[in-house]
Design a protein that fits this description.
By secondary structure, this protein is mainly alpha-helical. Helices cover 77% and strands 1% of the residues. It contains 17 helices and 2 strands. A two-stranded parallel sheet has the order 1-2. The two termini are 41 Å apart.
């Protein structure tokens, strides 16, 4: 009879090649993030058609753009903390089914007030998607590939936003703006069903909570079928578990400065992301281009974000988080300011929006990955979720700020020069992390 042994979960993941089981998890989490990305951009894509259909001024759309983001804010804070207590899997699955239903209901709204209410409640379900999907990818990744895996999975966000643009450019002229929400509600339903049958719980979470030995063994043997375990073997995780309210520990043990700086970067970057995704199609349409061209120009941003997430992953691996992201935000500041220049041709406008997408939505996966590798397992979902939750305050402010500037008749050039300021602040806050933290291994 073999003696009992301690089985290190992280060691098993680090020593073995990535299995088909892990690739399945990464794919499901990426598909999950498509919901977030599609939702971010869909309301901006349908805005020009909505203005014409309901005969409303552009400026009233600011609160509409922000309504779901208010829900996402509360959802991020609530469900990321809940996931650190009950698990990633149930929060992801329940949130996906709920979000699907509310998105389908959005297709039936008849007034701005109804749209505001339904978008808010849809956002509640969406709030738990990004932090928990990112945490799950990180916790099934070997250390050597963790950052790359999380950033690749995050391409689901920018890919979903870009896909939404190309689909909207086809759906809206053919079937009307409501069809965008019908499509956007059906896809999460399929993804949620796939997760229900195939998505496992985090191994690290199960070990730290001392739960479901059978589920731990089953998942480990799907990673490596050659693994065997004795009845007295016990599973262990090198990162410690803490009792009490997880969010408190974001500001303890020397983490407070880094946590605040990550909050600032999230706030400023998401302000820019949602400002650009919400208003670019409408501003381009008002500049005299067709609605289809306006939607496609808007789609250049998330397309740039998808490419940028992969490019930024390489930059982070080569130069580290702080230097890579600081440089990306500086370029983002310049490209955003360039978008509003009156001398731009359509081709240069598309290039400027693409570069801004590389540097704004394309940088967000890097921010999330930095939080995921900085915070320990018992704080990971909370750390990502609270950073995104605080960031959603910026996301809420961005579309509203754009509406205020447009209502006050700011020139397009000045609107985008103002939007470049948050990117500059993101660059400064990211650079400040150099003195506040030990650079995590990428």
């Amino acid at each position: 009879m073999s003696p009992a042994r301690g089985v290190d979960i992280a060691g098993i993941l680090d020593r073995r090649p990535v299995s088909a089981f892990q690739w399945m998890i990464f794919t499901l989490c990426s598909l999950c993030l498509i919901m977030d990305g599609f939702d971010v951009q869909s309301i901006g894509y349908i805005a020009p058609a909505l203005v014409r259909d309901w005969h409303i001024p552009n400026s009233v759309l600011g609160p509409v753009f922000s309504a779901a983001l208010v829900g996402v804010l509360f959802g991020s804070l609530l469900f990321s903390t809940l996931a650190d207590r009950i698990g990633r899997r149930p929060v992801l699955i329940a949130g996906a089914f709920y979000f699907s239903l509310l998105t389908l209901l959005t297709a039936g709204v008849r007034s701005i007030d109804e749209l505001l209410i339904v978008r808010f409640f849809a956002g509640l379900g969406l709030g738990g998607m990004m932090p928990n999907a990112m945490a799950l990818v990180g916790e099934y990744s070997p250390k050597r590939l963790r950052v790359a895996a999380m950033m690749a999975a995050s391409c689901g966000f920018t890919g979903g936003a870009a896909l939404g643009g190309f689909l909207s450019a086809w759906l809206i002229p053919a079937f009307g703006w409501r069809s965008v929400f019908l499509f956007g509600g059906a896809i999460p339903l399929v993804i949620a069903t796939l997760m229900l049958f195939f998505l496992p719980e985090s191994l690290k979470f199960l070990v730290m909570r001392g739960r479901d030995r059978g589920r731990i063994i089953a998942s480990l043997q799907r990673i490596d079928p050659q693994l065997t375990f004795g009845p007295d073997d016990h599973f262990q995780e090198s990162e410690e578990k803490r009792e009490g309210m997880p969010a408190i520990y974001l500001f303890r043990e020397g983490r407070s400065v880094v946590t605040v700086l990550l909050f600032v970067v999230n706030f400023m970057n998401l302000l820019n992301l949602y400002f650009l995704s919400s208003w670019i199609p409408t501003i381009v349409r008002d500049a005299g281009y067709s609605a289809t061209i306006a939607v496609l120009v808007g789609a250049a941003g998330p397309a740039g974000g998808t490419v940028g997430a992969l490019g930024n992953s390489w930059l982070i691996g080569r130069f580290g988080f702080v230097r890579a992201l600081s440089a990306v935000f500086v370029v983002g500041c310049l490209s955003i300011g360039f978008i509003g220049q009156p001398f731009l041709s359509l081709a240069l406008l598309v290039v400027s929006v693409f570069v801004a997408g590389w540097c704004v939505p394309g940088a967000q996966p890097g921010i999330n990955a930095l939080a995921a590798v900085y915070y320990p397992t018992y704080l990971r979902s909370t750390g990502i979720g609270w950073g995104l939750g605080i960031g959603r305050l910026g996301a809420i402010a961005g579309p509203i700020l754009g509406g205020v500037l447009i209502a006050h008749h700011w020139a397009t050039r000045d609107v985008f020069l103002a939007a470049a300021v948050p990117a500059a602040i993101s660059a400064l806050a990211t650079f400040a992390l150099r003195g506040a933290m030990r650079e995590p291994a990428a």
